[in-house]
Design a protein that fits this description.
The chain has 54 residues and is an all-alpha fold. The protein has three helices and no strands. Helices cover 72% and strands 0% of the residues. α1 (3-14) packs across α3 and α2 (24-32) crosses α3 (36-53).
């Protein structure tokens, strides 16, 4: 997993849902320089991070 995906996943896991942009996929692509597939991978990883925290 690339560093950019890890950074995006960490940001997503730590950012409350109400503070996230509406168009999350596009935001991750723009802010972290990810492709659509990488942005989806970051979302999946963020879900795992949140699941491990509980």
């Amino acid at each position: 997993m690339s560093e950019a995906i890890q950074k995006a996943a960490k940001w997503l896991a730590e950012t409350p849902e109400r503070q996230r942009p509406r168009h999350l996929l596009a935001h991750l692509q723009h802010e972290f320089g990810l492709t659509a597939a990488q942005a989806v991978a970051a979302i999946r990883e963020a879900n795992l991070i949140r699941a491990r925290a509980h």
